[in-house]
Amino acid sequence: MGEYTTVVGLEVHVQLNTLSKAFCADMNQFGDEPNNNFSAVSLALPGTLPVLNETHIKSSIKLAHALKSRINLQNAFDRKNYFYPDLPKGYQITQDKAPICVGGQLKYQTEGIEKTVRIHHVHMEEDAGKNSHDLHSKYSLVDINRAGTPLIEIVTEPDLRSSQEVHDFIAALQQLVRYLDISDGNMEEGSMRCDVNVSVMPKGSSVYGERNEIKNVNSKKFAKTAVEYESKRQIKVLESGGTISMNTLLFNPENGTTKPMRSKEEANDYRYFPDPDLPPLQLSQEYVDEIISHVGLLPWTAKESLIDDFQLTEYDADILNRDKKVVLFFKGLEIAKNHGSTLSSFLINKALPYCQENNKELSTLNNQNISDFIELLDSGKISKSAGLNTLSEKVLSSNDKLDIEVLAKENNLIQSDDQDFLDQIIQDVLSQNADKVKAYKSGKKGLLGFFMGQVMGRSKGKANPKVLTEKLGKALES
Questions:
Q1: For a Cys-Cys bond, which of 159, 246, 274, 461 suits 117, CB 3.0-4.6 Å?
Q2: Residue pair 162/26 in contact by the 8 Å Cβ criterion
């Protein structure tokens, strides 16, 4: 089999967390009883007129700014005409010739490398309803609650070159819309879906192959699997002497394969034309600037701040940066400036798992208890590992103000100022592990950790690590 390059472009649909729908006052609410949230306007009954949702516009401007796109001060809405059971109007209000913004880029990390995907354009539109084909033995069922939900569609250039890049780009975009607070980005609930355009070309070629579009993929994992399967399928066809025809495909998550939905040659003519009920949208630069001024923290500036201002490792910064609320909680504690590393470790290994297990928010925890606990851990008065293992649950679960040092004394964690008691423990450990002492002196310096653990265990956490390291080093070299 020859070598080929996979080429992928995405069309990502982001469902917005507005209170009402895109062009009417119907509730925009996931999970309600089917066919509850609709009205004469969302059905486009005679005599009704659509009205713009201003939050839809503001969210689009925020995203455009974050993606460094050019915002079109004059943009317009069009009708995309097609007939399907979940589209009650018989058309979709969208933007075709004059979208709200053009161009831009999103930088993201994939397999330890920073890559950039160019954005072709971003446009506003409304969602269709939902067809369910597996809930009834004889009929397909239609729920039009979702019809009219505000969407932003991000169309990329074909800049992605692997299934892993696709996965990581979607993750970065998901993180961004959550930071902007314009969508929950929950792909399982349909808040983000993507159409994946896949083609292959011989390695070294600059001529793209014929693409196939995989419709409505609703998870990063499925997008990754779909790209892997479809690129292999296309390569196999080409290697056998066949040609790739342009098709629209569906992805089957149960077996990880794609299957034809329709051929592009037979696709409907959507007959776009300007929506006669919605005049062109004219924005002022002052209006755009005002919205941009409230964008706030972005993922890449948050990560940069965690590393530069708080001296966190890139690993810790990446984990905290997954959720804007976690970053704001971390930065909101005064102790973060001088105790950033310990605080970060505590949040990652103790606080976040505790909140997940108990269905709690970080914001509900007692900040003062956490601050006092972190300062005690860094004071050298107790062993960090013993303190974290023994006191973390109490610190996290208590709503009342705790005296952390008293709590540490009650649990016998305070390290003695007089560390001479370590001398006898060290001698006992070394005499009982003579073979390891010999190996250490022969050059296996990594055994120092073994001896440290043995002494710390016998001291029941009362050994000061700094003093112990000095005493142990001298004893091993004598």
A1: 159
A2: no
